[in-house]
């Protein structure tokens, strides 16, 4: 029987456990604050930002939000960032990606105070992660690690093929999984759009992480029996539904499930974990800035 790894359930457990840490902060007179910044009106980004705010409310994190006009000059976004860096009520914030084409996301990230960079994207935090001393693990890779742990899937000595080399998922996840750590010690192959014979790389893996942003790129014919399949993709494809689209992963679920020993669904797999780990990083940021020790799950 193939195990379906339930990201909604694991994320809910993490939110419950974070509540204790949030109480510790409250006892010491502090309430963690998270701000989301959205430039433009990308519908998927609006959904994610709304969900992040709802998650904050559920666990007792104060949420703030700033909308920046999609046609505004980059300086408008940089001013918003400067204000958030100075705002003591905001312990962490994220600038939702993607930003409009006329803004270079790297210019944005460099301006975020690294201690408030709860996405873990600032070069200082990337450097720390690569050096094995992560301050904030990026939310999706950390969520993938927590999902594997929840399903008791050990990465030690395993061959992991990551399909996708993004700064948000592929690169940081590869770095985390090769680390000398209980949730690392894997042998990692990172594939991308120029990889020759992708199927050979996925077939040779114990664990496949699909994070290419290409709907149903990986199907069962590309997997050996018993592979663990983690699907990071959340793609909106046109469909005859109320919303006019349906959510599809980077994995063709039914054929992959027939081969996999365990698999994450879309929706309800990695997505909710990305949001839960953002709450985790926010609580961690609040503890660091307030000088309060908090127990994190
Ligand atoms: N600043 C950032 N921008 C982006 C990140 C990020 O980590 N930081 N990651 C992705 C998108 N993402 C986070 O914002 C994200 C993706 C998916 C979900 C999610 O909960 N998905 C649900 C379905 C939601 C729906 O109904 O559409 C699921 O998979 O079950 C949350 C966050 C890009 N940008």
UniProtKB/TrEMBL annotation:
<comment type="subunit">
    <text>Homodimer.</text>
</comment>
<comment type="similarity">
    <text>Belongs to the tetrahydrofolate dehydrogenase/cyclohydrolase family.</text>
</comment>
<keyword id="KW-0378">Hydrolase</keyword>
<keyword id="KW-0658">Purine biosynthesis</keyword>
<dbReference type="Pfam" id="PF00763">
    <property type="entry name" value="THF_DHG_CYH"/>
</dbReference>
<dbReference type="GO" id="GO:0005829">
    <property type="term" value="C:cytosol"/>
</dbReference>
<feature type="domain" description="Tetrahydrofolate dehydrogenase/cyclohydrolase NAD(P)-binding">
    <location>
        <begin position="138"/>
        <end position="287"/>
    </location>
</feature>
<feature type="domain" description="Tetrahydrofolate dehydrogenase/cyclohydrolase catalytic">
    <location>
        <begin position="5"/>
        <end position="119"/>
    </location>
</feature>
<dbReference type="GO" id="GO:0035999">
    <property type="term" value="P:tetrahydrofolate interconversion"/>
</dbReference>
<dbReference type="GO" id="GO:0000105">
    <property type="term" value="P:L-histidine biosynthetic process"/>
</dbReference>
<dbReference type="GO" id="GO:0006164">
    <property type="term" value="P:purine nucleotide biosynthetic process"/>
</dbReference>
<protein>
    <recommendedName>
        <fullName>Bifunctional protein FolD</fullName>
        <ecNumber>1.5.1.5</ecNumber>
        <ecNumber>3.5.4.9</ecNumber>
    </recommendedName>
</protein>
<dbReference type="InterPro" id="IPR046346">
    <property type="entry name" value="Aminoacid_DH-like_N_sf"/>
</dbReference>
<keyword id="KW-0521">NADP</keyword>
<keyword id="KW-0511">Multifunctional enzyme</keyword>
<dbReference type="InterPro" id="IPR020630">
    <property type="entry name" value="THF_DH/CycHdrlase_cat_dom"/>
</dbReference>
<feature type="binding site">
    <location>
        <begin position="164"/>
        <end position="166"/>
    </location>
    <ligand>
        <name>NADP(+)</name>
    </ligand>
</feature>
<keyword id="KW-0554">One-carbon metabolism</keyword>
<dbReference type="GO" id="GO:0004488">
    <property type="term" value="F:methylenetetrahydrofolate dehydrogenase (NADP+) activity"/>
</dbReference>
<dbReference type="InterPro" id="IPR000672">
    <property type="entry name" value="THF_DH/CycHdrlase"/>
</dbReference>
<comment type="function">
    <text>Catalyzes the oxidation of 5,10-methylenetetrahydrofolate to 5,10-methenyltetrahydrofolate and then the hydrolysis of 5,10-methenyltetrahydrofolate to 10-formyltetrahydrofolate.</text>
</comment>
<keyword id="KW-0560">Oxidoreductase</keyword>
<dbReference type="GO" id="GO:0004477">
    <property type="term" value="F:methenyltetrahydrofolate cyclohydrolase activity"/>
</dbReference>
<feature type="binding site">
    <location>
        <position position="234"/>
    </location>
    <ligand>
        <name>NADP(+)</name>
    </ligand>
</feature>
<dbReference type="GO" id="GO:0009086">
    <property type="term" value="P:methionine biosynthetic process"/>
</dbReference>
<dbReference type="InterPro" id="IPR036291">
    <property type="entry name" value="NAD(P)-bd_dom_sf"/>
</dbReference>
<dbReference type="Pfam" id="PF02882">
    <property type="entry name" value="THF_DHG_CYH_C"/>
</dbReference>
<keyword id="KW-0368">Histidine biosynthesis</keyword>
<keyword id="KW-0028">Amino-acid biosynthesis</keyword>
<comment type="pathway">
    <text>One-carbon metabolism; tetrahydrofolate interconversion.</text>
</comment>
<keyword id="KW-0486">Methionine biosynthesis</keyword>
<dbReference type="InterPro" id="IPR020631">
    <property type="entry name" value="THF_DH/CycHdrlase_NAD-bd_dom"/>
</dbReference>
